[in-house]
Design goal:
Blueprint lengths: L6 E6 L2 E7 L4 E6 L6 H16 L3 E6 H6 L1 H13 L20
Parallel strand pairs: 3-4
Antiparallel strand pairs: 1-2, 2-3
Amino acid sequence: MEGSHFRRQAPIGPYVVDFFCPAKRLIIELDGGHHNEDATAVHDLERQRWLENEGYRVIRFWNSELSNDLTAVTERIYVELYGTRASETMHLAHRRKRKTPT
């Protein structure tokens, strides 16, 4: 997606997310079958709530969705970034937090 920048395996607070677009505070998680297990699902929900409380948006895809319908996955990400499928891509800049001198 032209103009967007994603970090892979990005640390955010106590977590490491699969993909992160800082300009849109968008997190993309890719889940395998083990995420269906009760304990893992509970952990995922707690993690997602924490991230959302910090102001991030989290979208999840199953690995099988990538294999079976990559077009639908990329369209969903595009809409999350730009609002609609009809929107034109634009450079997404994020503001880095500058550390204040001590």
